[in-house]
Specification:
This is Ribulose-phosphate 3-epimerase. By secondary structure, the chain is an alpha/beta fold. The protein has eight helices and eight strands. The protein binds D-xylitol-5-phosphate (DX5) and zinc ion (ZN).
Length: about 210
């Protein structure tokens, strides 16, 4: 089942509630929330209070992508805010097994994101306990970048890894440079959660953009 997950990084930050209501009404399946701390990535966005304030404005799931150095600090707050998916970066988690247990025990689905240079094999030990692997198809930090072609191999490897441990329920998400030109190839590679920032929020007709991605 394809899920289209618009990233609010490319929304109008002065009108976030209206922006998420707009994409929900135009067919989005979840809202992708890029939390950045200015340390793990060279950009700073928003944190738990803003996510909590947005929650009541839409009913589709919230998919939080934590590009932060110390994700554990935010897990309980995100659960309280009503977030459904929490994805942490492999590169930011020296105690990844423990962080994943923390997310699940807080009642949320857990994912791990991999930067372009981080191999899928780094997740072999935890693959059975994941709900999602997020393949970053750009270097994280900014919207509107160009899709890195070797990400397609990583999407295939991530799907194969999950299947090899019998975790067929877990999904592969792709994030960065997903648009009308790249969407077919990411689906063929096995991604079912498709994050799109500029391709949705930057489109004149957002309903058509979401339908085209699906
Ligand atoms: C980048 C973020 C993405 C970003 C994608 O670090 O994780 O979610 O918003 O933007 P586009 O779809 O424009 O590449
Ligand atoms: Zn993201």
């Amino acid at each position: 089942m394809i899920h289209i997950c618009p990233s609010i990084l490319s929304a109008d930050f002065s009108r976030l509630a209206e922006e998420i209501k707009d994409v929900e009404s135009k067919g989005a399946d979840c809202i992708h929330l890029d939390m950045m701390d200015g340390h793990f990535v060279p950009n700073l966005t928003f944190g738990v209070p803003i996510i909590a304030a947005l929650r009541k404005h839409v009913s589709i799931p919230f998919d939080a992508h934590l590009m932060v150095e110390h994700p554990d600090v935010y897990v309980d707050g995100l659960a309280k805010a009503g977030v459904q998916y929490v994805t942490v970066h492999q590169e930011a988690c020296p105690h990844l097994d423990s962080t994943l247990q923390h997310i699940r025990s807080a009642g949320m689905k857990c994912g791990v994101a991999l930067n372009p240079a981080t191999p899928v094999s780094s997740l072999s030990c935890v693959a059975a306990q994941l709900d999602m692997i997020l393949i970053m198809s750009v270097n994280p930090g900014f919207g509107g970048q160009k899709f890195i072609p070797y990400s397609l191999d990583k999407i295939r490897e991530a799907r194969a890894l999950l299947d090899s441990v019998g975790n067929t329920e877990a999904v592969v998400e792709v994030d960065g440079g997903v648009n009308a030109d790249t969407v077919q190839s990411v689906k063929e590679a096995g991604a079912t959660f498709l994050v799109a920032g500029s391709a949705v929020f930057g489109a004149a007709d957002r309903a058509a953009a979401i339908a085209a991605l699906r």
